[in-house]
Specification:
about 130 residues, alpha/beta, Rossmann fold, 2 domains, three-stranded parallel β-sheet, 3 strands, about 30% helix, about 20% strand, elongated
């Protein structure tokens, strides 16, 4: 016996069963799942479900530097969002000296953002 064998967990009926019966008993515990197979010919039986992408709107505040730098930053954010499984619906940019501490963007841009979210059905707003 192995040093890891613990007689407390031994099956007393094991000695009475033959190897063939053990295999048969183990196989009867297995069930075939319809539609799933490892064979290439059965791949068409697998049910494919359409994934719903998260719909997002990106918002950025342009505080310093040139506008091209802000556009590159938002373009990178859009690529990251798409890589994470999101669909970018719209991008907003606001020129400010610094982000608003309460809302990140000004009240006018916030109203515009609200209208865009309502019109597009966006799930999430991502701020840069």
């Amino acid at each position: 016996m192995s040093e890891f064998f613990d007689p407390r967990f031994a099956d007393t009926n094991l000695e009475e069963q033959t190897t063939g019966e053990l295999d048969l008993e183990a196989r009867s515990g297995l069930r075939r799942v319809v539609g799933l197979s490892t064979e290439l010919q059965d791949v068409t039986e697998v049910e494919y479900r359409q994934l719903r992408l998260e719909k997002v709107v990106l918002i950025g505040v342009w505080t310093d530097g040139d506008f091209d730098q802000t556009q590159r930053s938002l373009s990178e954010l859009a690529q990251l969002a798409e890589t994470a499984g999101s669909q970018v619906l719209d991008v907003l940019v606001q020129r400010r000296d610094r982000p608003d501490p309460a809302t990140y963007i000004g009240s006018g841009k916030l109203q515009e953002l609200h209208q865009i979210v309502m019109a597009t059905g966006a799930d999430t707003v991502i701020c840069n």
